[in-house]
Design brief:
mainly alpha, 3 helices, about 35% helix, extended
């Protein structure tokens, strides 16, 4: 994370993150067959975690 932050401005930098309690997989419905994240599902199921990051 520190290395990635050296290549972007302060506004674009990663300041906080959260490790989710589950893997995002196609089988559990969080990924499409082409491995893209289904954002609506993630937002719905992890709304509290996302909200906590923006407090």
């Amino acid at each position: 994370m520190d290395e990635a932050n050296t290549t972007v401005s302060r506004a674009e930098s990663i300041r906080r993150f959260r490790i989710l309690p589950v893997d995002l997989t196609e089988q559990n419905g969080y990924l499409t067959p082409t491995m893209k994240v289904k954002r609506a599902m993630v937002h719905k199921d992890f709304a509290a975690d996302i909200e906590e990051l923006y407090r």
